[in-house]
Amino acid sequence: MKASRLVLMVLAAVMTLSAYGDAKLPPRDNLALKRGQQLFGKVCKAQTTPVSFIYDGKAYRGLGGLALADRSVTDGEDLKRVKQTFAIGNTLRITLDAAYNKEYGEVEYTLWFENVGTTPSGVLEQVKAIDMTFGGARPVLRGCLGDHVNQYAEYEKDLTKEPVTFRSDGGRATHVVFPYFDLVHGRGGTLLALGWAGTWQADFTASGSRAVVKAQSTNDFRSVLLPGERVRTALVVMLPYEGRNYDDATNLWREWFQAYNMPRANAAGDRIEPFSTTAFASDTGLPNSDGSISERFYTWRRTLDMIQHERLKIDFRWFDAGWYFDPYGNTVPSDWYGTVGTWELDTIKWPGKSFRESNEACHRAGMKVLTWFEPERVTNVDGLVKNYGYKREWGISNGHGTTTNNIGDPECRKWTLGRITKMMKENEVDLFREDNNSDPGSTWPALDSQQEQSLGLPRKGITENKGIQGHYMLWDEILDFCARNGKCTFIDNCASGGGRNDIESLRRSVPFMRSDADRTTTALRLSMSSTFNRWIPFHGSATKESTTELGPLERGGEPIYVIRASWLPIYNLYACFTHDETLDYNRLRHTMNEWARFKHLLTKDMYVLTKWHSPADTKGWTAFAYHDRTTDESVVLLFRQEACEQDSFTARLPYAKSGERYLVTNIDTGEETLLSGENLSQAGITVRLATPKSSAVLHLNRVR
After folding, report:
1. Which residues of 122-136 are buried (b: 16+ CB within 10 A; e: fewer)?
2. Domain boundaries 605-703, CATH class
3. Which pick of 54, 72, 244, 321 has the fewest CB atoms within 10 Å?
């Protein structure tokens, strides 16, 4: 099924709206538009297209020498798109879909392979989505690692001293490693990203003044294509820039990303503005095993009433895991994880229309509702087959307790889509939240092997490639449903936290929680913000601190230090609204209102004013600044960490303009200081905090 015109319009809006609203921003000093044009020309010229592959035993570098079957060009005000199809014999068609962003100089492309014949194709293998050389002295690779074990740790590698390889085999693209890279070369650099939600590998080497980048998606793919089958590479995104400054480079990326890569809020194409969420599940008085499994038809009313009574402005009710019947049609008292797949509301917990009624009450209170699903994983397949019309062959098992739902099969995807949209429509759910708590990289090969045995032909990687295509299509179909029914046209993207934040997934979604681990210490949260925020500007974290992810909430509410460390465009409020009789609502309102006062700045340019520290290092200060370059307004957040002995820190603000004056307000003390741009950028401004684990916020406005 193809996405409808409505959802295509919504997705197209991402590529047509200008940064931060309707008006274009003034050009940045580090734009490299000429180099972007040259790069686009190289991509579109068949002889120099930066891809490589082997087909039927013959190696191809670029697309030169292939027969051109079709070519189309769409040249708009901001975007130029070139689509070219090449032929190898009568069986294989190769389509290069490339685009150039005229405002930022960004270049992107995807390569597709399709069997248009009536017999199996030759073997396609060693497909490189990018195989390219970048000229320029002193090549350096900068970026961060992925979620889970690496917790977005920062790195910087001198490629003249060591080659660098990143490989992701789990099937959730941004766990462990992260497919976003800043390749510095010569007097500038190129920001790179791979858009593929499955497995991938990227290799960076250098010799002298030349850096070579080779990357694949669907690792080690080697397969024939059956008649009518299509496979594709990752989306490759490249954004060149001038200069070698890391903040300048990633601020260019943040601005482009929000202008042209983020989804939109609704079918009208409105941009997504910073918002708040909260869950009612911690306030039921019943045991909870992470999710909404403890929620019942009789638990929500007192929570919503208290939120309204205390005048808390919350935008979304977060309804998480555990709301469904298990595959045998039974209610689920605690095991939300081992019972997924039906996507049918548990009417023991929610009889009649009680869940819909609770959501309608939220709507009247000014709150939308998001609901958790996990469509890529199923459990208890026998029960699903017997009770819910599931087909046994749709479940791909690794033999060790994980079964992947094969949404690469169109019939399976249609069944899954119907279960999701039916539940959302019947219960007035506004936004689809997706999770995936398994590594499909361990299951996809099982179906590959079955097909190889039955066909007697290579099929390695075919299940993953079709599965990831199906995943993107499922999201497009859900967004189409949402657009047609007045719901939110973006997805809350989760895969055990931060596992699916590849750049193409983020054309349809935003990560409401960048990591499950971000429900623990403030030191971890500050560490993650120093790195992750550079690449994915719109996201959220928890607003709590505990030693473990599911640790209890702070009685009385979280301290201001923890809340300020959680300032992001998405504010996920953690609170026990009625069952914590010590909850300090004055402080809760104060901390929320403080975030709301400055939330408009959190999507602007970000400057990391201190060196990156690991989550275990609490001996120093952490400081960030967010600066609106159109208004020259900014906010500086400073944190004296738990074990920090230094009671003062001097923040130098590189964005402060020479010849201008700024009014600096300490929002805790009310103290106002008038300082010149030169003073702020060179000497800096010193903040003193008397005790460890404390914070300060400075608000800067240019004096006109």
Report:
1. bbbbebbbbbbebeb
2. mainly beta
3. 72
